[in-house]
Structures are given as structure tokens and as C-alpha cells.
Amino acid sequence: MSPRTSGMTSSPCLCVLASGSKGNSIYVSSGTTSILFDAGLSGVEIERRMASRGLDPESLDAIVVSHEHTDHIRGVGVLARRYGLPVHIAHETIEAATTSIGRLPAVVHFSCGSAFTIKDMAIHPFSVSHDAAAPAGFTICTPFGKIAIATDLGIATGMVRQHLKDCTHLVLEANHDPSMLENGPYPWPLKQRVKGRTGHLSNESARELLMDIVHDNLAYVVLAHISQQNNTPEKALSVVAARCGKHPVRFSAALQDRCCDSIAL
Ligand SMILES: [Zn+2]
Ligand SMILES: [Zn+2]
Questions:
Q1: Which end of the chain, N or C, is less surrounded by CB atoms within 10 Å?
Q2: Cα 17 to ligand 2 centre (Å)
């Protein structure tokens, strides 16, 4: 694979391009390093959303994959091949995803618990409780702050809490409202999966987790992987943001159908 030669830089930012069960992708840039965390929309749609925020796929340095569910990997193969991007992925995840991802220009394996660096970003993958081969959350240390990405969390384990403790920017799952899920259209087995220990985090559990880890330097929380059937962005925001009281945290809700505003680091 040829080294990235575009020389393009973008401002240090975090931009959730899409979030939800139909596709997830998060762009993080330190200004000199730009990474996509998951690429769960089609390649074309990710390019379109990046363009809508003035972000250039040519400036990407890598794709990092959290787990093999389609809503996280749909565009990985296409984008990696189109832009010659290395894909950082757990060994178990690539084994589970090979058929859908296809041939990649370069694969770099990571293991949960072992940090790795991509230029000026130090990335620490950590295990999460989700029904995939080796699902990971991430913290990303940049010269401008520490970002954490924690979605597809069945339960917020002690390890997850530990990793999220001192982040400045947090993308946190607030998947469902328990009573909307209970009374909603999902068949019973799917309801059990979503609310189970390896499914997705409810608004209430997200709030509880946040109460545990909030601190004065936590600047921004993006609520993510919000269910379109079993939750609303307004409900998620009102439950999770309700008790942050004295802490000056800003909140927004990531959407499925369009990309969020870029958040400057
Ligand atoms: Zn997902
Ligand atoms: Zn998943």
C-alpha cells in the first residue's frame, strides 16, 4: 500500500456521519490524522456525507472497525480499496466479516486491551458486552483531547466505565426507551436481544453510566445508536442530559438519516 500522500489536513474535529441500526460511521481528525471509526453505510453514502461537511475521503489515514455487524462494516471494503486505506480490526472480527468486506489493501490486527497508534492518535480498544466475535469500544487520545466511542453496549461493565472516565468528548449509546421497546413492534426474541446483556444500552442505563463518569473537563456528549422504533432523539436527550446539573456538558443526538454537525476539538 502506498503511504498517504495527499498532504491534506482538516481541522481537529469529531463528526458522526451516521448512527443507528441501519449504519454507523464516525469521523475523527486531529488535523494531521483522519480516521473513520466504522463504515456501516455504502461507500457512496459515506463519501456524500463527508462532502456535506467539507471532509475529504482522500485525507483519510485508516478505517478502524468495532465489530462485524453489517451496520458497522457495509462500506469498509469499498472505501478501503478506493482510497488504499489500512483497516485496523480484531482478528476475530475480520474472520467473521471476510465475506462481506472482501479483499483489503492492508489489514492491521488489534486486540482489545492493547493500545496502538496511527500517526498522532493513540487508540485504545476495549471489550464491550455485545453479541459479536470481539466487539470493541475505543478511546482516542489526540493532541486536542480524549474521545471515547461507546456504542453497541449490552451493559456498561466496570471496564467500560474505567475507559470512559477522563474523556473530553464522548459518543455514547442511548439505544432505547424501555417502555417503547416493550410496547413497540419488535418480535419478542428481538426485544429480548436488544435489552439483554449483549444487546444495546437503554436511555436510563446511559444516564447512569454518564453520572458515574462525568467530570468538569467532559465537554461534549453525542448520544448515539438511537433506535428509530424504540426511542426518539428528544426522549434520549431528555433522559440522559437531565441530571448533568452543575457540569457544563453540551449534548447532541446523532441521527440515522443525516450527518451531525462537526464538533471542533
Ligand atoms: Zn450497531
Ligand atoms: Zn452490533
A1: N
A2: 17
118 CA → ligand 2 middle, Å: 24
**Of 228, 229, 171, 231, residue with least CA distance to 202:** 231
Angle of helix 76-83 relative to helix 91-101, nearest 10 degrees, comes to 90
Query: 4-29: per-residue pLDDT in tens?
Result: 444 445 789 999 999 999 999 999 99
Give pTM, 2 decimals: 0.94
Q: Is residue 1 part of a domain?
A: no
- CATH code, 122: 3.60.15.10
Assigned domain for 109 exists: yes
Per-residue pLDDT tens for 148-190? 999 999 899 999 999 999 999 999 999 999 999 999 999 999 9
Structural domain count, the chain: 1
